[in-house]
Amino acid sequence: MTMHLDDAEVRRLLRLEPLIACVREALIDLSAGRVLQPLRTVMELPSEQGLLFLKPVLTRGILATKLITQLPRNAGRGLPTMLATIVLMDPKTGRTLAIMDATWLTALRTAAVSAVTVDCLAPKDARIVALLGSGALARTHALALRAVRPVSEIRVWSRNPDNVSRCALELKGVGSSSAEDAVRGADIVCTVTTASEPVLKGAWLKPGAFVAAIGAPRPTWRELDDDAMRNVLIADSYEAAARESGDVILSGSKVTAEIGEILAGARPRPAVGSTIVFKALGQAVVDAVAARLVYDAASGLEHGVV
Predict the structure, then answer these.
(1) pTM for the whole thing?
(2) Cα separation of the two ends of the chain
């Protein structure tokens, strides 16, 4: 029978520590060519000024497809702006194993990718984090970064002061009145917005800072200005960065390496003291391994194993 898992079940079953370990291996596999993964298909939803993303992947015996909607108007409806569903299938038979709500899974796996990259590339003593954005991704990034670095201060900024206050309170952080105030002196900066124009200026970054650029997944959208993009640029995928990222395309920046190459030791790490920008486009292989973790945990529970 096909397993159906709602948001509450996924939240209960998906644990951060094993997710981070699986994400690391998935990124290595992607860069090593062991993953069959076409670029995602994107369809515009004009009436809602939104997008539908379709992301299929085959990896390590996992066949999966993820569907994501990004609908900015959902904020006024009391719904997440990004909603997602994953279909997990048996690659030998095509049988559907599970259909699961992937809204939380997406938020947590995105932060896990950032955490893996921070753990590989950011200074070991990085303590001050700036979050540009105050939604679900800000919350999961705070959780994941605290798992890999001794975070002592989290600063939160977004265009909605009420959301900033709520997010900062929840994260035991501090709200910032401007993006510049949040970024100045921060060791780690995460841009987790729905912006289509730059919200982060390179002039604000301290030397040696690490930037996780998570938003702006379209060729005409940006979160970072040209100055920020002139730093060492690492991506989760060369192809995705070159074809999907407005930050990369419009700035003319060149990707130095994929994070999977660096994790595997196939490419050197940037020089100590470098200011690094990591551009993440959300790879389907990461969704697949996260979904498999949930499925395996649920299967174990059903059979009294866990």
Answers:
(1) 0.94
(2) 20
